[in-house]
Amino acid sequence: MNIGNHVVESAEQSLYEVRQKVYPRAVRGWFAAWRWALVWATQLVFYGGAWLTWNGRQALLFEIAQRKFYIFGLVFWPQDIIYLTVLLVIAALSLFLFTAIAGRLWCGYACPQTVYTEIFLWVEKLIEGDRTKRIRLDRSALSLEKVLRKSAKHAVWIALALWTGFTFVGYFTPIRDLWREVWSASTGPWATFWILFYGFATYGNAGWMREQVCKYMCPYARFQSAMFDRDTLIITYDPERGEPRGPRARNIDFRARGLGDCVDCGICVQVCPTGIDIRKGLQYECIGCAACIDGCNQVMDKMGTPHGLIRYSTEHALENKLDRAQMFRRVFRPRSLIYMAILAGIVVAAGVSLALRVPLKVDVIRDRAAIAREVAGGEIENVYRLQIINTTEQSQHYEISVSGLHEIHIAGPAEVEVGPASSRVLPLELRVHAEREHLTPGAYRIEFEVRAIGEGAGKVKVEEKSVFIVR
Amino acid sequence: MSQFSSSFWDFYIAVITLVSVVACGVFLKMQSVRKVAGGTTETTGHTWDEDLGEYNNPLPRWWMWLFYITIVFSLVYLVLYPGLGSWKGLLGWTEVGQLKQENARAEALYGPIYDKFAAQDVVALAKSPDALAIGQKLFLNNCAQCHASDGGGSRGFPNLTDNDWLYGGAPTTIEQTITNGRNGVMPPWGPVLGAEGVKDVAHYVMSLSGGAADSIRVARGRETYAKICIACHGPEAKGNPALGAPNLSDKTWLYGGGEPTIVETVTKGRNGHMPAWKDILGPAKIHLLAAYVYSLSHR
């Protein structure tokens, strides 16, 4: 913006301003229905998931204190951190893929911030009415009705928020016990803190903060431009069709008067949860919720003009006037194909790895201070500590054997029982007759094999490398 | 630190801290409003590359208050906690005090687990799988470094599994050994006996446990033994648990039973040190540990 030649006049400008409250107007339509479908889907999973049982225990339970993470039939240990890494990589790649194809799908439909704001807005609409009524109520003087409506709304919000906090904590501590504790007011200090904390976060973010979370706190908006390209489907106002905008009577031939399809009713701005005008083009505030598409389409119906003045389109499609088929064909461009290929590869690899996962983990730690000692009979003895982790939910017997040196053997019992989903440390002595075996001083590679024995043990075994030292 | 520097540095640090905190507030105030030449309120007034402007997208006001809250927080913090020079803070918080508090909390939480076993005697505990499970953990964390994970010991560190004891294997003795530690001192005899004399004694010692030895040296060594070594290791070389002097007539060797090792032991002496654990573990844990150690040779 060139300001050089203007008469210089000094103006004071604030770099902070009081937030303009956004009153999103309720909207119905194809995309709103999708959003509600996802609200139901995500919330049924979230609120319901914690109550499922599996094998007599909670199906989804992340016991931080015990460092055991139960997901249906699987028990994850801290050693399985790689699966968390893989999950995060899959989540990140999915985000890249969805964003490259259709922008902020996550933000618009599935992000908890959007989902809870949607639920809280629905409560607000039920109690205070839609946009205009809410604006009027906020501007009105204090009255009994205002107090009643406001307090009713906050009561419902707080109840919802506390239920959310309770459910969240219920994934980390058995939810049924927690439920009993809540009713007898005997929850522990940390459970109480986290229930209130997540409750407060839900209430504050979905009730008060809303679009500010997306605009000022969430980093996603700031780097989305790196993931967009000219073929990314974004919510776009078609200026060529819409302009020049302006009000008109319904029965006139507006095209003859040089008007575009946009009647400048402002519905698209009123329904926007972040309070922007999509007609100004793509903005970082746009969370891609498509409420403006639904709103505009309703108006287009009334005006008798076709849908899609605001629609999912791409920069490329707008410029080159591509039809829908051409536009959607570009979804399968190298960028998204590469994302899909990597994503599919990782998902398959993770699935295979999970399916082949051995429910037994062994760590071998050689005693370091006592290097090697001579025992009766002239044998050399090394001591090892075997940490044997049984990740099944049944007690298991394991047999330990060792190989790598001729005649190397375990002194003492080589069998151990490990309880369900627990670990056991087993000190173990290995012996070999160094002289008879002509072993010179040094380190020799050996391998432990721990194998489940007994009924139903299957082929569960783990091999672990170590060294045997002769001196 | 005070013996190295004057109180000047306390003031120096305090002034720097306060000036920084106040400066943050002043800068915040200065930077929340900007004078823009040109009267346009759309942009920040910055211009790059001839005509590139920057839109002014003001942050919400509450965001600015968050900054001010951090300043208030830091001032309150500096009043309540140590942080301003030598000021101790109104709450009297110290790291050591917090450690003590946490230890007391841990004691209150885990104490009952150990207390449950404190009433039972060691022999009974050595048969209790619950007590042994805890005992093993304590052993692996504190003792295994020297005595090895299986308790089998290593050169210079006694084997705890063979029921052969330097100081005696009664439960109370084991507890006492862990509590107060032991110092096993064998004096160096090289200067007194000379190389030949040491070798004679070594051969006599080897013969005590039935090892091959030169009979002439054994005879000479026996005389020396009767004059010197007998004081600690006893007339029959059975050792003395009161002193921790080892029994030389069995085949158990702490440092090794070959001739060169015995010669080295006699010449240079040995100094075995078992640390005292009473301040680190306390009586309740030592009780469990004694039971575990006892169980190693009474399976």
Short description:
The complex is a heterodimer of chains A (471) and B (299). Chain A has 471 residues and is α+β, with helices and mostly antiparallel strands.
Summarize the structure in words:
The complex is a heterodimer of chains A (471) and B (299). Chain A is 42% helix and 21% strand. In chain A, the strands form five sheets. In chain A, strands 10, 11, 12, 14 and 16 form a five-stranded antiparallel sheet that branches. In chain A, strands 15-13-17-18 form a four-stranded antiparallel sheet, with no helix packed on it. Chain A contains 16 helices and 18 strands. Chain A starts with 9 loop residues before the first strand and ends with a strand. Chain A has 471 residues and is of the alpha+beta class. Mean pLDDT of chain A is 90; it is low at 1-8. By secondary structure, chain B is mainly alpha-helical. Chain B has helices at residues 8-32, 61-80, 95-118, 122-125, 129-142, 144-147, 171-180, 190-208, 215-227, 230-233, 259-268, 278-296, and strands at 33-37, 43-48, 52-55, 59-60, 182-186, 270-274. In chain B, the strands form two sheets. Chain B has a two-stranded antiparallel ribbon with strand order 2-3. Chain B has a two-stranded antiparallel sheet with strand order 5-6. Chain B is built from twelve helices and six strands. The chains are: A alpha+beta (471), B mainly alpha (299). At the A-B interface, strand 1, strand 2, strand 12 and strand 16 of A face strand 1, strand 2, strand 4, helix 2 and helix 5 of B. Strand 1 of chain A pairs antiparallel with strand 1 (33-37) of chain B.
Given as residue ranges, the uncertain stretches of chain A (5+ residues, pLDDT < 50) are: 1-8
Helicity level of chain A? 40-55%
Let me know the largest β-sheet of chain A: 5 strands, antiparallel
- Alpha carbon gap, first and last residue of chain A: 81 Å
Distance between the termini of chain B: 55 Å
Return the structural class of chain A: alpha+beta
Sheet/helix structural class of chain B: mainly alpha
Q: What does the average pLDDT of chain A come to?
A: 90
Flag low-confidence runs of chain B.
Answer: none
How many E strands of chain A? Answer: 18
Radius of gyration of chain B (Å): 35 Å
Largest interface by Cβ-Cβ < 8 Å = A-B, 33 and 46 residues
- How many helices of chain A does DSSP assign? 16
- According to DSSP, the number of beta strands of chain B is 6
Helical stretch tally of chain B: 12
Give the CA-based shape of chain A: elongated
The gyration radius over C-alpha positions of chain A equals 32 Å
Looking across the biggest beta sheet of chain B, what order are the strands in? 2-3
- Give a quick account of the main beta sheet of chain B: strands, pairing sense, barrel closure: 2 strands, antiparallel
> What fraction strand of chain B?
5-15%
- Mean of all residue-level pLDDT scores of chain B: 89
